[in-house]
Amino acid sequence: TKEAETKLSNKREGTFLVRFSTSAPGSFTISRVNVRKSIEHLRIAHQPGHGFQIGQRVYVGLIELVESERNSEHLLYPCPDSCYQSLFME
């Protein structure tokens, strides 16, 4: 969490990164700079064979989730120096 916050500090709104959850083993977190320019963490539940869930929506993979939620969750710019940045570049 702290490393994600450090990487996102001073980034423009809409910058995000995907990481393993520190509090829910097997799950993921999207850390993002929201429209108020503060950092938020969105939990992505994951159970093998059951997809990736954000809220009530379930997706086959993380890339599909980010692409589908890009506008509604304001996931516009992959964070530089994030280990998964290249997966979300257009």
Question: What features would you describe in this structure?
Answer:
Helices cover 17% and strands 31% of the residues. It contains 2 helices and 6 strands. The protein has helices at residues 2-8, 62-69, and strands at residues 15-20, 28-33, 39-46, 52-54, 57-59, 77-78. A 6-stranded mixed sheet has the order 5-4-3-2-1-6. A hairpin with a 7-residue loop joins strand 1 and strand 2. The longest helix is centred in the last third of the chain and has 8 residues, at 62-69. The radius of gyration is 12 Å and the shape is globular. The mean pLDDT is 89.
- Poorly predicted spans: none
Which band does the percent of strand residues land in?
Answer: 25-35%
Spatial strand sequence of the major β-sheet = 5-4-3-2-1-6
Task: Report the strand count.
Answer: 6
Cα distance spanning the termini: 26 Å
Oligomeric state of shown chains? single chain
User: What helical percentage do the residues reach?
Assistant: 10-25%
Q: Averaging pLDDT over every residue, what do you get? A: 89
Biggest β-sheet: count, sense, barrel? 6 strands, mixed
Q: What is the CA-based Rg, rounded?
A: 12 Å
Number of helices: 2
Structural class: alpha+beta
Shape: globular
Order of helices and strands: HEEEEEHE
